Request: fold
Amino acid sequence: MPGEAQSYKATEEHVKIIGRTCYYNDALWLALSGGGVEFALYGKKAEVVLRGDQTADGGDQFARIGIYVNGERVVDDLMNKPLKTYTVFESDTEQEVTVRIIKLSEAAMSTVGIQEIKGSAKAGIRPAPEKVHKIEFIGDSITCGYGVDDDNELHPFSTATEDVTKAYAYLTAQALRADYSMVAYSGYGIISGYTVNGHKLTTHLLPDYYDKAAKSEGRFDGTLDPLTLGWDFNRFVPDLIVINLGTNDDSYTQDDPAKQAEYAGQYTRFLKQVRARNPQAKLLCTLGIMGDRLYPCVEQAVSNYSEETGDRNIAVMKFDVQLASDGYAADWHPSAATHAKAAEKLTAYIKELMKWQ
Reply:
């Protein structure tokens, strides 16, 4: 009967897809930070059924999920069971609501699937409208919101304290009223991941995984490795791509001119890779929140790229280095206050760069 709860799958017919996702075994799987869906309905009730991957039954770095109704977070939970059902909205009278489901934690540790959406709505559920602008963010732990919910800089990583919605990239997309997609992994770089022994860490290079759906210890439905899936760049065509990579490389390059030159050279190569996948997007290269020693190398990489390709559809911007007075998150990562400042600076720069209102 009209008004009774109906079941819907998280497909483009019913929801707006956010970020890189994969539909597999009757569920929409989320891996990367900020991935999710958004839908609207006019009705009395909405439920969401989520499915965990193999980490939900035997891990400790569970996928963290946020569910929002009309912009307010109503669910903040860790996917520590194979299946969970949430009543996200319920009312005695019909109301117009928008529901957003976001993966707050990053891809590396775990994934989560949206198995079913149930809605008591005569007209069913419908995708939220697309926004005017589209931005892709490419980054590392800073973009992921590593440790932002932990104000003790001596504490280690945990998915439970990671929240992409409090990080500069998500905040910038919100301020610009832009749809977004994120490709970000903690500890990753251009020529080396984060290292403490002076040796190059080549397993954590973002360019190696940019063309993939995701890299994760989690498996979609416990079986499918997202790394085996290539990403279709036609699914999300950004107007702007913001790259923030180099903080982890700096742990390797330090003040060594040869290593810094290698970073600049490989950065130029990565820009060519990004451009090949995104022929029309403006590229914006940034660095500096957790240190700006490599920023001149970013400028050099961009200059070399433009000289070699003739492509001038690219810009650079230096973030302000975080201040002790703004506090630190886990592992000396940026606090919420630092992220807010960075978002404010980036938003203003993008408005001028892109001529966006």
